[in-house]
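Lab channel / #folding
Pinned by the channel admin:
"Please post every new chain as: sequence first, then the structure tokens as a reply. Keep commentary short and put observations after the output so the thread stays searchable."

First post following the new format, from NK:
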Amino acid sequence: NSKFQIIEFPEITIDELKEIANGLAKKFNYNNLNVVNDLVDFQKELSDSRKNKQDPQCFTIRDIAASIKAFSQDKNIYDTVITIYGSRFDKKVKTKIEKLLNEKYPSLCKKTNNFDVPQFPGCFYNKPLISAIKSILLSLQNHRNVIITGNDECGKTQLAFWMSKYYNQLNNKDDKTQIGE
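Reply from TO:
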């Protein structure tokens, strides 16, 4: 006989999720409830499509909260959504996510500001690197863990070094070490 009482927590309905998301928007002083509601609809649609494929990846209220918090800090909506919802998948799935966003959720495709790419000495910038930098910074700013993956000798370790130095400099004004050192 077990000493534990099993309590089944029912799945949250879409209306309850929207109510929670709207409460988070109020908490973070974010007023665009159309974007918030579209985010919830997008997450629900994406979650349902992933469940059909028996995918262990799941999206939670934490993903909604991190997105809304980033929106409230005037982070680029599209980059935020792609980072939070797409960066955990390979390029093929990420492309499908981008297609879903563009076809059904135009409010989540708004590019609300420019991104200042940190300058690393001797670095050649390309689209995948800039995308990785955006994702890493957004993740770290939202207290999310980051795992950098890629082929051998593609620069993962160097990027991790540069990004950790840059992020530490952003958060510790006393650190005078140059990023490239």
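NK: The chain has seven helices and no strands.
TO: also worth noting, The mean pLDDT is 85.
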